[in-house]
Amino acid sequence: MHILRRPRRLRTSAAVRALVEETSVSVNDLILPVFVVEGQNVKREVASMPGVYRHSLDNLLDEIGQCQDLGIKAFDLFPGLDESKKDKYASESWREGSMYLEAIHAVKSKYPDVVVMTDVAMDPYSSDGHDGYVENGEILNDETLEYLGKMGVAQAQAGADILGPSDMMDGRVGYLREKLDDAGFSKVAIMSYTAKYASALYSPFRDALESAPKFGDKKTYQMNPANIKEALIEAELDYAEGADYLMVKPAMLYLDIIKMLNDNFALPIAAYNISGEYSMIKAAAQKGWIDGDRVMLETLTSIKRAGAKIILTYFAKEFAQIQQQR
Ligand SMILES: NCc1[nH]cc(CCC(=O)O)c1CC(=O)O
Ligand SMILES: [Mg+2]
């Protein structure tokens, strides 16, 4: 047979395949989300996220040390608070000496070279379980900004390198930028949750933090999974308001959105490979229905191929361990 073009020639051996490989994932690309809770020597697994734990600060510091030895350089901290600490205003989020602010400070003091990202949204601190301030069953936009501003500045004061506003209120990136600059934190960056969709896949995360909304859902602020164009508007606004990174969330089901933002914006694009995406893979792997390690690698590669430079993923430590064994 004379077949002039034989694409299979580029797949003949592992070495050839490596030569022509276009996308590879590195630990440099990854941010590991971690859950910090009150207490001493606490390491409680999240039932719906096998292999993911809520750590008290002492254990978290050890965990971050281990991850740093594996090459992971960036961590996104989330607080799990006791119900008694929550109120309408999320006031625990800016209270001096609060568990979360102490944790940010301790991580940065012990590991000055790691990147500490923090979460800006009211839900883990809110007695309503919503990302914004609630009045008469409504999530109010402009009133929320004031609380997010206090929260963000407190996190910057504690040592955060990157703030991650995950709340989806309009105008919050510009508001935070101004508050940070006024307080002398012009070096603190903002990774905006630019296109955050109202996904059914956040539930394991809400289990982890016991932060599910007490009423209703998040559809008046998070985006409709059916829509593409509003992601472009959100990105234009975040760019204009001074965001340093644009994030898409979730990742696996939103690869088209990742690609669109990467094609249209020069800022680094991040994607959040969220809790439910992790849990689906873990559950199927535990049942022996899929090869969990291979699906993890394929997932991270696909997110990167779509255009994300940065991936927030609960798989970061496992990925790093597998890389190190190679
Ligand atoms: N501000 C809330 C927040 N910040 C990060 C996540 C989800 C992360 C994940 O599922 O892994 C959520 C959940 C939500 O919007 O309800
Ligand atoms: Mg927005």
UniProtKB/TrEMBL annotation:
SUPFAM superfamilies (alphabetical): Aldolase
EC primary class: lyase
Similarity comment: Belongs to the ALAD family.
Pfam families: ALAD
Catalytic activity, EC: 4.2.1.24
GO BP term, example: protoporphyrinogen IX biosynthetic process
Subunit structure as annotated in this protein's UniProt entry: Homooctamer.
Binding of Mg(2+), residues: E234
Protein's pathway: Porphyrin-containing compound metabolism; protoporphyrin-IX biosynthesis; coproporphyrinogen-III from 5-aminolevulinate: step 1/4
Entry keyword Transmembrane helix: no
Keyword set, alphabetical order: Heme biosynthesis, Lyase, Magnesium, Metal-binding, Porphyrin biosynthesis
GO molecular function: porphobilinogen synthase activity; zinc ion binding
Stored PROSITE patterns: D_ALA_DEHYDRATASE (PS00169)
Active site residues per record: K196, K249
Record has Magnesium as a keyword: yes
One cellular component (GO) term of this entry: cytosol
Name this polypeptide is given: Delta-aminolevulinic acid dehydratase
Catalytic activity entry: 2 5-aminolevulinate = porphobilinogen + 2 H2O + H(+)
Organism: Siphonobacter curvatus
